[in-house]
Amino acid sequence: xxxxxxxxxxxxxxxxxxxxxxxxxxxxxxxxxxxxxxxxxxxxxxxxxxxxxxxxxxxxxxxxxxxxxxxxxxxxxxxxxxxxxxxxxxxxxxxxxxxxxxxxxxxxxxxxxxxxxxxxxxxxxxxxxxxxxxxxxxxxxxxxxxxxxxxxxxxxxxxxxxxxxxxxxxxxxxxxxxxxxxxxxxxxxxxxxxxxxxxxxxxxxxxxxxxxxxxxxxxxxxxxxxxxxxxxxxxxxxxxxxxxxxxxxxxxxxxxxxxxxxxxxxxxxxxxxxxxxxxxxx
Amino acid sequence: xxxxxxxxxxxxxxxxxxxxxxxxxxxxxxxxxxxxxxxxxxxxxxxxxxxxxxxxxxxxxxxxxxxxxxxxxxxxxxxxxxxxxxxxxxxxxxxxxxxxxxxxxxxxxxxxxxxxxxxxxxxxxxxxxxxxxxxxxxxxxxxxxxxxxxxxxxxxxxxxxxxxxxxxxxxxxxxxxxxxxxxxxxxxxxxxxxxxxxxxxxxxxxxxxxxxxxxxxxxxxxxxxxxxxxxxxxxxxxxxxxxxxxxxxxxxxxxxxxxxxxxxxxxxxxxxxxxxxxxxxxxxxxxxxxxxxxxxxxxxxxxxxxxxxxxxxxxxxxxxxxxxxxxxxxxxxxxxxxxxxxxxxxxxxxxxxxxxxx
Lengths: 282, 358
Known about the structure:
The structure holds 2 protein chains of 2 kinds.
Chain A: H1 2-16, E1 35-44, E2 47-57, E3 62-66, H2 73-80, E4 90-98, E5 101-102, H3 110-116, E6 117-120, H4 131-141, H5 150-160, H6 164-167, H7 180-192, E7 198-202, H8 210-223, E8 228-232, H9 236-242, E9 245-250, E10 254-260, H10 261-266, H11 271-277
Parallel strand pairs in A: 3-8, 3-9, 6-7, 7-8
Antiparallel strand pairs in A: 1-2, 1-4, 4-5, 9-10
Chain B: H1 18-58, H2 62-68, H3 78-83, E1 87-88, E2 95-96, H4 99-130, H5 133-148, H6 151-175, H7 189-201, H8 210-234, H9 238-246, H10 251-262, H11 264-280, H12 283-289, H13 306-314, H14 323-356
Helix pairs in contact in B: 1-14, 4-8, 4-11, 5-8, 6-7, 6-8, 6-12, 8-11, 8-12, 9-10, 11-14, 13-14
């Protein structure tokens, strides 16, 4: 099956100018998606930021969300772990489920939800604490610091974020003393240390130089073995390189197309998506 | 194209910018002059204080010695000044132990800090982390009004409400816990509270008390702590809060473990400012705590702060140049050194914490 798809890739490469590596050795799962939304609309005051988004995001794959500025990509991401709650004027309609449970139900505690769904932000935001304390923070506030071997958990998270070799000798130093790329990997380590199920990434490489960005991309490729990754990106090459599925949002908060990444980039159904991908629009 | 007269790229200095540079210089001089005013004033005040304080201790001002050839003679010894426990320079048998009024000032300062620091910090945390934008926009102006009330008004507040009702009430309920709140109503004070307090603590809950001074100065410095602390908390980047919330932190955890440490230098600055204000506070504390230099920790007793002494002495009848008059400057100098120490401490703390949290 994969060889077949690779063939199509070669043929259509010329059309969109993207090389899409379709075979990542990850079998598409038929299981129900870990995160699903049904007619999800989000408003800031009277302004609609997302319009009736229905999507099913698969487990243990990388799902990229692309689209022009102001299309609601980040809004969608934030509505998954209810970080939108922090915005006073924000209201949500429709349904968004995590493991089949609507996260906007009254009995859902956003604090508990966020312990299952980690997030990495656009600009690295390490706490003004030591590297060790940054990584240990999640386990500590979740009251799990005594259950686990904290040193071990920190080491594993830093290894998982491909940062261990660089910081092994200076865990006591401030996280702010690291370079931008290292800081972002520290934030990834911080997010994976409490072992969430989903990791949301909001343009995690847009503040980084290309070398640091490519390290993060390699890292995402490894993270997906254990976690479901949902990544918002401005960079279409990046989406094509790292994701299994791609969702294209267009202005107005509308989900225009959602499919296997290869199909989106090689053979989009919607003309607007094709225009956007080939740079005619957005 | 000729090569001998090369016209520059337009960056060599010529006449066109001369006016701009001139006015630039003029403005710089004006600004410098303004900046100098405060420095000169501070230095002048310090010199006057020092000069006059010398006459308190040595019988002659430094300037008199230097300019008119007067000689020093010991009037008040440092030992007596710093270790004596009775302060009555204008008494018929004068005593010059500054401890009672230094204690008065410190007791008010520490007590006021115990009131304003916890309440002010909690207020700031509420406003910055818990309150909705609407609530914050309503509450903050009210707090700032509290900061703008003239201190003399606080003084009357203490005289007419705090002492009779609150302090009297505490005195009663300590003695007679079964007594209801009604007992503490002010009109009972002369008949019930005062004798009771006198019986128990050995003092009358009179017009003045240390506790009233602590409460009034504490109250008036709350807005200082809360307002400056809240500004410091608001300056903590929201990305840090987002980072913590996304890890499943509760509001309390974000407030205590992220916002407080990141804003600590500003918060400490607010504490020091409030304490400095408490040290230097005059009107309210004089009206609330009184003029009687007692070396006592009894909260219901009348005490005297350094500032209260300065007020009573400055409006008194002592002749200029007498030892009791010159004591004004000795106390003033000491007060100045205390607030100066607080300011230096503030700078040190700020630097240290700014290094730790950028």
